[in-house]
Design a protein that fits this description.
With 232 residues, this protein is mainly β. It has one domain. It is built from two helices and 17 strands. Strands 4, 5, 7, 8, 9, 13, 14, 16 and 17 form a nine-stranded mixed β-sheet that branches.
């Protein structure tokens, strides 16, 4: 009985990590940029209305808002960085798994809630580099590379800083595309280092949770930020 209980707890924790670690990012395919949701090679469909804002930055730090259609961005002229705010909505972890419901919707459907959360995702895709990109751009939650990630090679160490509301955040969990488990956490200055394990497409994510007050639809706010870039 004790072994069965431990197995249930481990399975539950695993499911929490798997769903919470999902990312949303922009990746070029052919002539277009596609907005992708999932983790690693496991991609999933999503509601396109969750894509709230996309910006295209030049090397001077100037930006313009761009649009997407069915998760595809077309006709962008030579961007240096693309950013995105993706509102993943409300989720509940129930005894039947994760549901894209609010807490009130789950209760109306007589579901047993383990945890309820609001999920917001923030993304940066680096295509060219300027040291201006080491400065914050005003996202609620964001990662700042402290070196040019486009010059990284397999095995190199990339220093990063993680900001929440423009201030360094401690104990943000850092993941990569290769693992659901945290590879490191930020210190009190929001700083940590990440080893680049693979060539080609690279994704580094940061995750934090905060209690939500005065929201009848969720108990926690789950924030994630990621950066992506390609290594030759």
């Amino acid at each position: 009985m004790k072994k069965l209980f431990i197995f249930f707890i481990m399975a539950f924790l695993s499911s929490v990590v798997v769903v919470s670690a999902h990312d949303a990012w922009i990746q070029k395919k052919g002539a277009d940029f596609h907005i992708i949701y999932g983790h690693g090679n496991k991609l999933e469909s999503y509601d396109f209305s969750k894509i709230k804002e996309i910006r295209s930055y030049d090397l001077s730090g100037n930006y313009k808002k761009v649009t997407q259609e069915n998760g595809i961005i077309r006709e962008i002229k030579d961007p240096a960085m693309l950013t995105m705010f993706f509102d993943n909505g409300y989720w509940v972890q129930t005894t039947d798994g994760w549901k894209n419901f609010t807490k009130r919707e789950a209760l109306q459907n007589n579901l047993q809630i383990v945890v309820s959360e609001r999920s917001l995702k923030f993304h940066k895709n680096y295509l060219k580099w300027t040291d201006n990109f080491m400065k914050p751009i005003g996202m609620k939650f964001e990662i700042l590379p402290l070196k040019n990630p486009l010059t990284m090679k397999q095995g190199d160490i990339l220093p990063i800083k993680v900001l929440l509301d423009g201030k360094p955040v401690e104990n943000a969990a850092i993941n990569t595309a290769e693992s659901h488990e945290a590879v490191t956490k930020t210190d009190k200055n929001g700083f940590t280092e990440v080893k680049i394990k693979e060539k080609g497409f690279c994704l580094i994510s940061a995750f934090i949770e905060q209690p939500l007050e005065n929201d009848p639809d969720a108990e926690k706010l789950f924030l994630s930020a990621n950066i992506t870039f390609d290594l030759k």
